[in-house]
Amino acid sequence: MIAGAALAVWRAPGPKLRSAILHFAAGVIFSVVAVELLPDIVQHHAPYEVALGFGLGVATMLGLRYFTQRLEKKEELGDAGNEPAAGTRATALPGAASLPWGLLVAIGIDILIDGLLLGIGFAAGAKEGTLLAIALTIELLSLGLATAIELRQDGHGKGRAVAIVAGTSLMLLVGAGIGTTVLRGATGNMLEIVLSFGLAALLFLVTEELLTEAHEETETPLLTLAFFVGFLLFLILGMVA
């Protein structure tokens, strides 16, 4: 994520390249879900636990989306109310720009969930956790790019934008720490609930976050291909690892 922010302030990628990264990340995460997590869940034949965990995952992600959208909307309304009157010029220096707290809180929550998912992946097995770590790394690269670009547009300096992204990225460590601590001794039915929760959260991440952002750019065959390249790459990696 820090590398993505540094890249954004050095030479921001074009919209097509960012869309390709988002497509690729979506394909990678979807591959990890389909190849690694889903077979483990189906193998244990615990439909009630799966339904409970999956339902909790969907409800949690929908609730977080509602909460973060409210924060972002409140931030936008606050910014609109603070705009200078017509005919006047803003005198604030770039380094003195106010922090977009709504955006940062939303991103922090997203990263915290990513950390929890990482803990869930390692609870399923070292192989699953490692593949998921690589997949989430690609997603966070894109998130770092987008966040730094947003901060730069708000008037923050290059160093400050990277520092803010670096501070926000610590939420991943918090989430992963919580995930591994809570899930360390999880077995049987409890593990099924947790894995199903992670399954729903990852599917939500792919369909409602990554691909939604990726499709903001005009779709082309090459951009669509990036999704399937990511899926195939991790399908093969999962088979030979």
From TrEMBL:
It comes from the Bacteria. It is a multi-pass membrane protein. The keyword Disulfide bond does not apply. InterPro entries: ZIP. Its main location: membrane. Signal peptide: none annotated. The keyword Transmembrane applies. Keywords: Membrane, Transmembrane, Transmembrane helix. It is found in: Membrane. The chain crosses the membrane at residues 20-38, 50-68, 101-124, 131-149, 161-183, 190-207, 222-240. This is Transporter. It comes from Hymenobacter negativus.
